[in-house]
Amino acid sequence: MKVDVILGLQWGDEGKGKIVDVFSPRYDIIARFQGGPNAGHTIEFDGKKFVLHTIPSGIFHKKLMNVIGNGVIIDPVILFREIDKLVESGIKPDENLLIANRAHLILPTNRLLDAAFESAKKDAKIGSTLKGIGPTYTDKYARNGIRVGNICYPGFRKMYECLKESHLKTAGTYGFDVSSFTLDGISFAEYEALWFQSIERMKKLKVIDAEVYINKSLNEGRSVLAEGAQGTMLDVDFGSYPFVTSSSTVAAGVCTGLGVSPHNIGKVFGVFKAYCTRVGSGPFPTELIDETGNKLRERGREFGSTTGRPRRCGWLDLPALRYAIMLNGVDSLIMMKADVLNPFEKLSVCTAYKESGKLLSSYPFELSSEGLEPLYTELDGWNTGLDNNITMAELPPALKKYIKFIEDFVELPVDTISIGPDRLQTLQV
Ligand code: GDP
Ligand code: IMO
Ligand code: MG
Question: In CA terms, which of 32, 36, 121, 411 is 20 to 30 Å from 346?
Answer without folding.
Answer: 411
